[in-house]
Amino acid sequence: MQDVEFLKFVVENLVKNKEDIVIDKQVDELGVLLTLKVNKEDMGVVIGKGGNIVSAIRSLLKIVGSKTNQKINLKVLD
């Protein structure tokens, strides 16, 4: 499973407004940057209390990236 598909799978199972999920991928010499935009109503669910959920998603993406020797970073947009 690729990084974008994995992120989409995880986020779709968290949010109510699945049609508002937008994921952009940028690759450069530093690694892969995934930017995630969700509906404002779902932002709290994706970030979680104290940032716990988004931190867990970032940890999972690091594991996915380690399989392909890539550094994957996640940025959540307002």
Describe this structure in words.
The chain is α+β, with helices and mostly antiparallel strands and 78 residues long. The chain has one domain: K homology (KH) domain (GMP Synthetase, Chain A, domain 3), CATH 3.30.300.20. It has 3 helices and 3 strands. The chain has helices at 3-12, 43-47, 52-66; strands spanning 22-28, 31-37, 72-77. Strands 1-2-3 form a 3-stranded mixed β-sheet, with helices on one face. A hairpin with a 2-residue loop joins strand 1 and strand 2. Helix 1 packs antiparallel against helix 3 (52-66). The longest helix has 15 residues, at 52-66. The termini are far apart. The model has no long low-confidence stretch (mean pLDDT 94).
Task: Characterize this entry briefly.
With 78 residues, the chain is α+β, with helices and mostly antiparallel strands. The protein is built from three helices and three strands; from the N terminus they run H-E-E-H-H-E. The termini are far apart.
Q: Give the mean pLDDT.
A: 94
Estimated radius of gyration: 12 Å
Sheet with most strands: strand arrangement: 1-2-3
CA-CA gap between termini:
27 Å
What is the H/E string? HEEHHE
How many discrete structural domains?
1
Helix content: 25-40%
The biggest beta sheet is recorded as:
3 strands, mixed
Report the count of strand segments: 3
Structural class: alpha+beta
What name is given to the CATH topology? GMP Synthetase, Chain A, domain 3
Q: Which strand-content bin applies to the residues?
A: 25-35%
Count of DSSP-assigned helices:
3
State the CATH architecture: 2-Layer Sandwich
Within CATH, the superfamily carries the name K homology (KH) domain
Report low-confidence residues grouped into runs of 5 or more: none
CATH class: Alpha Beta
